[in-house]
Task: inverse folding
């Protein structure tokens, strides 16, 4: 349930609302907008509670929402969420490009890639130190040593870092090095992990699960937000279809759908969704044209030698060309971030 109040609602009226909500064993989440104050009521709402709220001072409207997610919904928070990390503004009109290798391998690889992607216009550096691999025999990442190399690349270039955290026990360590924590597709429904990253004061990017509906994905974001962390970014990374030529199928409609349902920034990952380097640029351009707030792109100095995801990694040269075209498409977007 959402309680809408006038912008000039007094503190006393707002406190009375909060106390009444809490007296029923529910949680009040207050969002102070420019035109109104919106109070999200979280928990299991008793049947007569709507009528009760409508009669209280300062209340202009009470809306029952059928959607199971609230904090992540547009109704609750009409304005777009903007997340600032370093020089990047995620959720604004300019697409933010996060780029780097699939996994951190060594200092030279990380620093050279960081410099190359920065020169081409990326504003966030990616690289995995904890890697979710289908086979336990594949390279599973360098762990904390990899995080140290990410920090080194950040010191060299100033680029903030996004990197994946796979286990609740690693959240504190990863948060020491990362500017954004990534929840991978396979962990989108790891609720203990979502709870844990809900407690940190850093942005979290939640990738869409391999077979997750929009609602399940937004509920994963809701977990993080319900823990107190409102800085959530969503990432469409492709879903399972029947086609095996591509690795997954990027659902380009997810971009405008999520912008309609939610105020959270939505970025696209054409690398993991296609699995092939020559499909990355076309699918990146489609995502940007559809309104994506950013892209996650895998780039490697020598994709043939990459320890992970070489076939989908762009060379520095191809990444330069992608950036030129992304900027061109972004410049003709008209209403990049408003709700439909
Ligand atoms: C990644 O971004 O490194 C990754 C493993 O992606 P996903 O979780 O989308 O497969
Ligand atoms: Mn990868």
Result:
């Amino acid at each position: 349930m959402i309680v809408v109040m006038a912008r000039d609602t007094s503190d006393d009226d707002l406190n009375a609302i909060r106390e009444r909500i809490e007296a029923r064993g529910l949680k009040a989440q207050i969002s102070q907008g420019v035109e109104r104050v919106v109070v999200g009521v979280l928990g299991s709402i008793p049947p007569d509670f709507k009528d009760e709220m409508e009669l209280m001072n300062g209340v202009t409207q009470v809306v029952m929402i059928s959607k199971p997610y609230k904090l992540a919904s547009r109704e609750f928070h009409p304005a777009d969420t903007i997340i600032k990390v370093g020089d990047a503004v995620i959720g604004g009109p300019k697409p933010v490009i996060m780029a780097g290798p699939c996994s951190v391998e060594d200092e030279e690889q990380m620093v050279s890639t960081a410099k190359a992607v920065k020169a081409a216009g990326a504003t966030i550096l990616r690289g995995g130190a904890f890697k979710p691999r289908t086979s336990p025999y594949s390279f599973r990442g360098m762990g904390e040593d990899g995080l140290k190399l990410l920090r080194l690349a950040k010191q060299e270039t100033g680029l903030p870092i996004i990197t994946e955290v796979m286990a609740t026990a690693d959240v504190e360590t990863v948060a020491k090095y990362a500017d954004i924590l990534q929840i991978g597709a396979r962990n989108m429904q790891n609720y203990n992990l979502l709870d844990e990253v809900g407690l940190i004061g850093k942005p979290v990017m939640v990738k869409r699960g391999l077979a997750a509906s929009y609602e399940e994905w937004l509920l994963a974001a809701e977990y993080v937000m319900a823990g107190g962390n409102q800085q959530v970014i969503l990432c469409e990374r492709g879903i399972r279809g029947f086609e095996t030529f591509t690795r997954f199928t990027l659902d380009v409609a997810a971009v405008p759908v999520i912008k309609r349902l939610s105020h959270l920034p939505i970025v696209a990952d054409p690398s993991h969704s296609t699995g092939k380097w020559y499909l990355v640029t076309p699918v990146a351009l489609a995502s940007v044209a559809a309104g994506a707030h950013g892209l996650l792109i895998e780039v490697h100095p020598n994709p043939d030698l990459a320890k992970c995801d070489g076939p989908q990694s762009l060379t520095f040269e191809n990444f330069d060309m992608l950036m030129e075209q992304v900027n061109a498409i972004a410049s003709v977007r008209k209403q990049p971030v408003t709700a439909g």
About this structure: The first helix runs from residue 11 to 23.
